[in-house]
Structures are given as C-alpha cells and as structure tokens.
Amino acid sequence: MAKRLAAAEKEVLVEVVRFTQKNGLRGCDGGWKDFLARNGRKFGASLSDPRKRTRDVLLAFLQTFSKDLQKYFGKLVKRHKERSAVQQYMTDFPDEVSPEQKLVQLTAEHPEYRKHYCFPSYQEGWKVLRIGEVSSLMSSSAMLAIDCEMVLCNDGTEAVVRVCVVDDKLKAKLDILVNPLKTITDYRTHITGVSKKDLEGVTSSLVDVQKSLKRMLSKENILIGHSLHRDLCALKIDYSQVCARYSYLLLFTEVPMVPVKT
Questions:
Q1: Whole-model pTM?
Q2: pLDDT at 17 over 60
C-alpha cells in the first residue's frame, strides 16, 4: 500500500490530503496546516491549498501517518484508479454501457458527490465493498433500493433499527429489525414506526445486516435511495455503485428504469 501511495499522481495525492482535512486526521506532525508550519513552510488562505504544493510535499505529509492509515490511503488511490478506468471505458465503449450505469456515473460527477460519499471507512466497524471488472460492471443494470430507520441513542449517536431492501420489481429482499446494542433515548416512533416493544427479543446486529448487504451487492448491483449517503453512514458501508436521488429522479424520462419507492 505504501508503494501504491508513493506511485500516485499529484492530483490523487491532493484528493487524499483533502480527505485528511475533511475528516480531521492527524499524523505525527499534526494536521495539514500543522505539518506546513512545523516544516518551515509558509501558508495562508491560498498556500494551504494542497494544489499549491508539490507532489513531494504532499507525499511527505501523508507519510507522517500511521501504517494503518497509509494502508487506507492506498485504498483511496486504488479507488481513484478504478474511477478513472470507468470513465475511460465509457468514453471508449459508450454503446456497451447500460443506462443504469450512466446514472451511476452522473452521480459520481455531481458536485455534491465527494462531499457526501467521502466516508470515514478507516474507522472500526466499517466495511468497504469492492466492485468487479470494469467491463462487466458497465453492463450491469440490476438495482436495489434501500431505506433505513434510525433511533437516537444515549451517547448522542444515531443507530439503525430497521433496514428494508427491494429490487426493481418491488420484491422485498431484506426487511429486518436491528438491535443497536446500546441504550436508546428516542425511538422516533412517529417516523420509524418502531417502538421499544418491537425490539424485544431482536438479536440481529449491524454486523448481521452488513453481511447480508455484502452478499446482495457482490454482483455489482446498483444501490439507490433517498439521502442514500445517510443510510450508508448509519450502516457503516462504503460502496461506490450508487445512484443518488439527484441523478435518478431527474432522468426518469430518459432512462428505461422502473421507479422504486423507498
């Protein structure tokens, strides 16, 4: 993974540095601005922009992080290469790309995508789901819609209590109650439809749901939903085959796809 990071192009390293900024990550020299200051490099409103720095400076900063985080950065580099390969394939073989995959690409190109789908999947408990070969991926048209219900817990966090997944024929593939395994302070029953009584005896955990979703998404299925990034954050699943609401609703008249109510 360290070799993958060292071989990355500057634009990719810029993206990784921005990822550390967004998530407040700190190496042995602190965060990005701390690193610049401690190494005698002037910075200001513009000079702190990673794009203004050389590739060597960007790489030196990323190498101040732990081996585990450097390993994760290597995964980000790999994902960037996968994204570039997809874009190239769509340019070279436009007739072989399914309409649904074009929606996935439109989602990835949306200005809000990197803001909402930049998940902290380096944290404990997260699962990063892989995608397959580009050629088979581009012809995939199978879609799954997901919706999650969340409750508020005593530690101030939200936790999933119900997950429902349907296919493009509106057939339920998963409909399960989930035990958050911590104290719930607000069931939000008027929204979730779930009460304390409903969770009595429920043993399914978030890990169980993650395993089920991993099996469902192993064949390059496209995942769609409303505020999908919020559901994925609650599920702690990092998956790039997504079609966000701002893409699929705008193009229903152009793409032969069955609308799925979530």
A1: 0.83
A2: yes
Domain ranges of the chain: 2-92, 127-248
Phi/psi of residue 240, each to 5°? Answer: -95, -10
Alpha-carbon span 248 to 228, nearest angstrom? 12
What are the CA-CA distances from residue 214 to residues 16, 34, 157, 209, 239 (Å)? 26, 39, 24, 9, 10
Average pLDDT (85-109) is 90
If one counts every other C-beta atom within 10 angstroms of the C-beta of residue 22, the result is 12
Q: Are 251 and 224 in contact (CB under 8 A)?
A: no
CA distance 3 to 59: 11
Report which of residues 197 and 252 the model is more confident about: 197
Domain 127-248 carries which CATH code? 3.30.420.10
201 within 8 A of 123, measured Cβ to Cβ:
no
- Does the pLDDT of residue 106 top 90, yes or no? no
Q: Residue 253: is it exposed, middle or buried by C-beta count within 10 angstroms (0-12/13-18/19+)? A: exposed
Instruction: Retrieve residue 151's tokens.
Output: 């409750």
CA distance 131 to 214: 11
How many C-alpha atoms does 234 have within 13 Å on its Cβ side?
24
pLDDT tens digits for 111-124?
A: 888 888 889 999 99
Q: Would you call 10 helix, strand, or coil by DSSP?
A: helix
Please tell me the predicted confidence (pLDDT) of residue 252.
39
Given this model, what pLDDT does residue 258 score? 37
Q: Is the pLDDT assigned to residue 256 strictly greater than 80? A: no
Q: Which residues of 148-178 are buried (b: 16+ CB within 10 A; e: fewer)?
A: bbbbebeeeebbbbbbebbbbeeeeeeeebb
